[in-house]
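Pasting as-is:
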Amino acid sequence: MEQPVVPGDGPLWRIARHVGMYSVGTAVSLSSSFVLVLVYATQFSAREFGIVATGQVISLASITVARLGLNSGMFRFLAEHHAEGNARAADQAVRTNFAACFLSSGLVTLAMVGGWAIIGAGRSADIQLSGYLIALNVVLSAPGEMASFALRAKQLSAPYVALMSATAILTTTSTIAFVLIFHVGALAVFASAVTANGLMSVAGLIMVRNHLRLDGFSAQQLRQSFRFGIPQVPALLADWVMQFSDRLFLTRFAGLAQAGVYSLGYRIGLIEQQILGTATTAAWDPFILAEYRAAEGLKSIARVATYFAILGMALALFISASAPVLLIVIHARLEYQAATSVVFLIALASFFATMQHMFGAPLSIRLRPELGLIFRGLGAGVNIALNFALIPTFGMFGAAWSTVATYGFTVLITIAVCRRMMPIPYEYGKLLLVVTGGVAVQLVVMLAQSSGIFVLTALSPAWSLILLAAWLMVTGAFSMGELRSIVRRLRSVTAS
């Protein structure tokens, strides 16, 4: 029987090396998330965490508007200039977009401060201060964010990981200090964001200082970035709707306490995105832009997508099975136990979001960001409709199912359109088997957890992965030949 071909020194291993480096940063981010979950679940009431979640939703929307898509525009063209070895154009792309982004973010901060001075009048001192900190974070985080995009576009994975890891560690330690030492409650989250992002923006500017001379700004680069990036703003706002608007619906229809419980479950499920989505997004776009012109480039892109899907589904199962054990270990408040019931759904939605990004490769290659806007706009519309339909009756379960259905919908429409743009031979049959197997194993995990047998629940992170692996082998979605080829290559890479 013919063994499947696994590239050796080719594109698969090139992206694997970058993902491996990004995974170091992901491990730091995951550790930080674990510590923050511990703090939130033990130190904040569900209502307090609901307030935090609402403030973070507002912060994300503000930052999205303030950036004007300039980070995405710089990334797209800097990656291409760097691949071509065009240092002059790369310098112009960085300095032009840095300056424009900092200016736009500063204006948004001023507008937010002025608006909050009116809207926040009469509220308690800590709430007023939280509003001003959210506004200040918009401009202070801009240089650090732009620096991270620049490093990733140039595939400088080590400096990128160092910058992002330092930000995560500083944010976590600051939050702990504000909560446990200064006892400032929900205000700690916003104060730590300002502290960490301000300091890391300085570090980011130092990392990309070679690009930041005070001459050579390019109107052409700015126009290119706006053309590519401006359509990303409503698209990112659509993403915001799909990911975060359910918190606002929950607050309105179910109260802050249930919004807080759901937010904790969402945060645990979002570990899927932190591990798979972040690493994939960081490595995927430079990979496809460098690979699609190669003779076997489209096949390589498709094969990488299948491997990512397998890893993503395994991760979603592991997170879901581990969630009840996690809350027991950290001695979370009893009111947060219900959060485990939505973890798999959120992880599955994050999995679909990652796959949608991968299926949307032709949009970046063909410079058709407006189609991405349409996909995400439709998804946002579906999400709002489902939130209205499900949350008033089913509360946080309605919110979770709305999120899953929304991202499933965006995957389907992305596939339908992008297949016509560029015939990347994604292995749809195998991908369907991966999803089917993951959902089936999750049902078994739920039965084990509902049985009340602690041993079954405690060991479910291990046996759920064994069941998934058996399913993939039996159905042919993954083979022993592929596994042996990958193991051999990993050994040779490690030895060299």
